[in-house]
Predict the 3D structure of the following.
Amino acid sequence: MSKIKQSFEDGLNTITTLTGLTQADFDLLRQAAPQALQWGDDIVKMFYDTLYEHPRTAAVFEDSERPAREQTLAVWYQSLFEVNDVNQFLYNQARIALLHIRRHVHNEFMVGMANKLRLLFSAKAVEAFGPEEGLNVSNAFSRVLDTVVGLTAEGYDVLSKSALSRATGVQETVIDKFIIRAVDEVEQELLG
Ligand code: HEM
């Protein structure tokens, strides 16, 4: 197995262990699909209204890109309710993670938007299914989202470091040491 594949597998293993994502989450989402699929339009609108309203996130997009982005997010949202193979789903998310990294979508943007998605989905789930079942459905959705965001964050980290290492010839362990040293300096400057 190539080094990058092994590192991806390790990352996946850690992320899914920490979030607790399993096929049971996708099975529950599938049961909730008749209701949840009706929330897609609201979710997509909220998502892009938020991103286009804030200058740093709006700057990621090109003019006139919004309809295409709304369409791909709507298709992705629908796809969450028909997953039969967690591993295949995660490999597909790796492609999506790389698209984000290429467009400089920072990790904090992903985390912030995952939270917005979670809150809206959760409010709708509780309204549709009641507090108990609504929470179960919402927790399943959360585990999916956190895994997807975790994958992107891990990818950003691993790729940034390996790209820097390849470009400079400096070993990743040495880069790690530079980072720690930089943290010490930043801490001094920031918190003094
Ligand atoms: C939880 C957070 C997010 C999820 C689940 C998500 C999901 C997606 C999906 C499914 C696609 C389509 C991939 C495809 O073509 O099949 C996409 C593309 C894209 N997303 Fe996101 N996204 C998230 C956050 C963000 C944020 C915060 C930004 C910008 C600030 C962003 C910017 C983009 C851009 C620019 C593309 C197009 C990439 C390309 O094809 O060049 N996304 N996203």
User: Anything to note?
Assistant: The pocket of protoporphyrin IX containing FE is lined by residues 51, 57, 60-61, 69, 72-73, 76, 96, 99-100, 103, 105, 109-110, 113-114, 117, 145, 148-149 (CB under 6 Å). The domain at 3-191 is CATH 1.10.490.10 (Globin-like). The CA atoms of residues 97 and 151 lie 7 Å apart.
